[in-house]
């Protein structure tokens, strides 16, 4: 499940809007709605661990966490 960013605007009352964007996926549970382009040779892979990706996970604020690469 992907988390959706929210925006809160205060103009007399508070309104919370859920906004979905392809970039809102943190890849902690799955690859959300990212799909491989069948016309290219690259393939998205969900990975975890150091040495092949980020050294620090921005979602968990630790060295653990998931990311995708191709």
TrEMBL record:
Pfam families: MAM. Residues 23-70 form the MAM domain. PROSITE patterns: MAM_2. Gene3D superfamilies: 2.60.120.200. InterPro entries: ConA-like_dom_sf, MAM_dom. One of its GO terms (cellular component) is membrane. This is MAM domain-containing protein. It comes from Rotaria magnacalcarata.
């Amino acid at each position: 499940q992907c988390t959706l960013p929210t925006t809160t605007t205060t103009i007399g009352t508070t309104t919370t809007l859920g906004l979905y964007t392809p970039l809102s996926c943190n890849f902690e549970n799955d690859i959300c709605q990212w799909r491989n382009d069948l016309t290219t040779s690259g393939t998205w892979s969900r990975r975890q661990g150091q040495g092949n990706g980020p050294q620090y996970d921005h979602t968990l604020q630790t060295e653990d966490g998931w990311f995708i690469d191709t």
